[in-house]
């Protein structure tokens, strides 16, 4: 029987193309399911998840709390820095009018915040009051004290103050510009040392957080070895298998960062009473302040990023070792 040339052959199997919209929808759904899977597994094993989160929180709370205390110390000592000044003694022949003119001229320097004029008469009266040798000083034929201008620098860094001291000492009407900069150097050295110690501590504990997450994700991979083998047999890619573990690492880190915020807040609340009382006894207007809002926002994200990094390292190291055996 002749075949009709117009008769169509039965259609066989043919491949279909998935649109970009469908691919994006599938990608988005898998991310959502991976996040739900990570949270569900944390709820399924609350004790082990809590231990991991608590270790991360303690590791991050220590440098975060020290950073808050350093910020408070820096704010407290800012007022002390303002007391750093230069005592500029002028020549004895400089009269009061010229002394005030010099003080006004120096105020225009970009490195000078303000000046204070102490005339020879004011200095003598103050010395009589404080020393108790008023009768002896009255017997002197002339006032032996030179005119004085107290200069308060704009920048209290030791190097800047010493540069201003050299500049003033080079002026012809200045006899001597004195500065006790030793305590300023000690103060800045202590603050800088504290900042560096916090940086080193943060780096070391951040590495510890990554290692904790690496170990946690490694155990999770081993416990799901058979499931991973099945997924690879049916065609699941490494990215498909990797994604739930990455979300688990991020969730562990993010939860640890949130718990670290709570621990720091509790510690500051517990220490706030004694610290504020100590400041009050020293007649200080400062009080203990908490963590800045920007730091509170960054800390959980930073911790989550560390968890994500730890999960990536664990998956990259161990996932390739799990392959179907045929």
UniProtKB/TrEMBL annotation:
The keyword Cell cycle applies. It holds the Pfam family FtsX. The keyword Membrane applies. Residues 86-175 form the FtsX extracellular domain. The chain crosses the membrane at residues 49-70, 197-217, 245-271, 291-315. It is found in: Cell inner membrane. Keywords: Cell cycle, Cell division, Cell inner membrane, Cell membrane, Membrane, Transmembrane, Transmembrane helix. GO terms for biological process: cell division. InterPro entries: ABC3_permease_C, FtsX, FtsX_ECD, FtsX_proteobact-type. Belongs to the ABC-4 integral membrane protein family. FtsX subfamily. It is a multi-pass membrane protein. Its main location: membrane. Forms a membrane-associated complex with FtsE. Part of the ABC transporter FtsEX involved in cellular division. Residues 201-316 form the ABC3 transporter permease C-terminal domain. This is Cell division protein FtsX.
